[in-house]
Amino acid sequence: MRIAIVGGGLSGLTAAAYLSDSPGIQGTLFERSPQLGGRAFTYEKSGFTLNYGAHAVYGMDRHTLLNMENELNLRFHSKQVDKRNVVYAKHGQLTPAPLDFVNIMKTGVLTTMEKFRFVAEIAAVITNIHQLKNYPTLGDYLNKSNASPDVKELWEHLVSSNFFITPEEARRVSGEVIAEYYQNLFLSHKPVNYILGSWSTITNQLVGKISQNQNWEIAVKEPVESITMENDKFLLHTKTRESLVFDQVIFAMPVQQVAKLLESTPWGNSLEPYKNNTSTEVLVYDVGFSKVLNRPFHYISDMNNKLFISDVSATDHTVVPEGGQLLQGIAYLNDDFVDDDQKKQYLESKTLQMEALFDTYYPGWRDNTTVKRVSKKAMVASVKNIHTNKLLPNQLDQVPFYFCGDGCEGKGELAERAFSSGRKVAQDILASTAQIKALSYS
Ligand SMILES: Cc1cc2nc3c(=O)[nH]c(=O)nc-3n(C[C@H](O)[C@H](O)[C@H](O)COP(=O)(O)OP(=O)(O)OC[C@H]3O[C@@H](n4cnc5c(N)ncnc54)[C@H](O)[C@@H]3O)c2cc1C
């Protein structure tokens, strides 16, 4: 059996690693860029390791990566972000972020009575009896709730910062999705961890695994441009090769790009409902210093301006040269603009807000910056998890392909959904191959 995987990001590499681990399957993984990793691409600059996307893992002790470690024999280490050093800034005041019982008791964003109310809400989420799961959206739940405005604001802020979206959009996330997400996170003993050495620690091992199998090819700088079908086989046409023959194809790329690629094929109509899904985009502002300028906290979330800064190097020392410091600022973005000019001005104002936050807590940063990377449009999730968007199933009726990636159905959010959906499609293919073999023997 010959399998093509289109996309060399976390999901495509995961699917390829599982399939190449199984005898009797040949395959090619196509990646249009010169490098693998997709949005989890990592690169070195002046001794700093910069991630195109961050490498925080949410709920490490309940994460798909644990299955992958065991099943694929991966080896990596992670370190937990120190919860006591995670703060919220509200009206210029710093206060512990209410992430666990200890921080909730210390935080200034809730009054004593509100703290009890919030703890009760967390307990209800953990035991799966919270009413939130029955509401179409967080906004619907908050409209009915008799909680104080501070508790409501806290819910919005939590969802906003975990899903990388604005508070207005947080109100449009389904109650069921939020209840499930926080049940997992509140039950976790390792809510936020960094993979030491960044995503490349994992992608390098996945690539190593695929490369061990001589029946597998990794084709970088080779975008797949179209696909046709002949005699029950799929013919892939890439930028450099024509009519490569495969028995099965996995699309491991953002959903909107898959819909575009298949637009004028017999399967285009089935992808139509997913074509206009909106994605989650953020502004990313990385700065690296050759020495630690200041370390007032490890993470700050500015509740007024909807920005956060992670002192990545406070947790993961592998990303900096000795004694250095790496900060990553992220701003959640609105996507509702009348024209490009308005959008440009908005992005400019977000950049200035971010720089002002650096000025406040890292004085002198402008004169001490060794590396800097600003991206005004980074796609965190290819499908924003609001109730009007629809995640793409791993298989669709009347469509002979498999789909994986962070815009597809799968466990968790963000990178976990990329890993879990990649693992799932590989396991589904292996199961159906085993079934076909069993039938042919009987
Ligand atoms: C700023 C930022 C911060 C983030 N922070 C976190 C975080 O802290 N924690 C977390 O869990 N996740 C985080 N993420 C999300 C995480 O990076 C993504 O969920 C994950 O990398 C998505 O992987 P994927 O395989 O689904 O898609 P992609 O990474 O987009 O991979 C798709 C690949 O397909 C290739 N491709 C597209 N079209 C073609 C074609 N026609 N032919 C061949 N190849 C093609 C692309 O070049 C790409 O390499 C962050 C992302 C960003 C941008």
Task: Note down, in words, how this protein is organized.
This protein is 37% helix and 23% strand. With 442 residues, it is α/β, with parallel strands linked by helices. The two termini are 20 Å apart. The relative contact order is 0.18. Bound molecules: flavin-adenine dinucleotide. Flavin-adenine dinucleotide is lined by residues 6-12, 30-33, 38-40, 53-54, 56, 223-224, 252-254, 257, 261, 282, 284, 378-380, 405-406, 414-416, 418. GO terms for molecular function: oxidoreductase activity. It comes from Paenibacillus lentus.
Structural class: alpha/beta
Helix count equals 15
Shape: globular
The total count of strands amounts to 20
Strand neighbour order, sheet with most strands: 8-7-16-17-18-15-19
Q: CATH-wise, what's the superfamily of the largest domain?
A: FAD/NAD(P)-binding domain
| Main sheet record | 7 strands, mixed
Just name the CATH architecture of the largest domain. Answer: 3-Layer(bba) Sandwich
Radius of gyration: 23 Å
**CATH C-level of the largest domain:** Alpha Beta
Overall mean pLDDT:
94
Low-pLDDT segments: none
Portion of residues in helices? Answer: 25-40%
Write out the distinct hetero groups bound to the structure: flavin-adenine dinucleotide
- Which fold name is given in CATH as the topology of the largest domain? FAD/NAD(P)-binding domain
What's the end-to-end separation, in Å?
A: 20 Å
Q: How many domains in all? A: 3
Strand fraction: 15-25%
